Here is the input.
Amino acid sequence: MLRTCVALALGCLLAGTAAAETKSGPIKFTGPNKEEVKVTAGSKVQLNVTLKQITVGKSSAVAVSGKVTNTTGERMHYSYHIAFLDKDKNLIGCQQFGLPLDAGKQGNTGTFINLPPAEIARIAYYSVAFYENEQRIGQP
Here is the structure.
């Protein structure tokens, strides 16, 4: 059911005119600030983020942090959707983030997903869907 909902949501986003790119791969966390994976995506808006386990106060989390760069001469919109999956590709945690970005500008991007340490230890894969468009993502 969850996979069906995720596929449906992604399909609805793809139905618009936004350019889409997906990246996925193996990932394993063994503690805060140890392993990290760098992910890049996009052609007009370039996403460069790092995925790693962090501590937020007394809580455990998986962080997505980095930069986005609008390489065009016009205002662009971007959105990234990230999921962390276990060895059987069941969802452990996910997040979405998106904003507009002015022509030729660079900005910080990032979010974190609070998860119990035992759940972070189960993460085996990441999957990122990245969208870029002149219009707000999801708009016709």
Q: What stands out?
A: DSSP finds two helices and eight strands in the chain. The first strand starts at residue 19 and ends at 26. The chain has one domain: 2-133. Residues 44 and 71 are 5 Å apart (CA to CA).
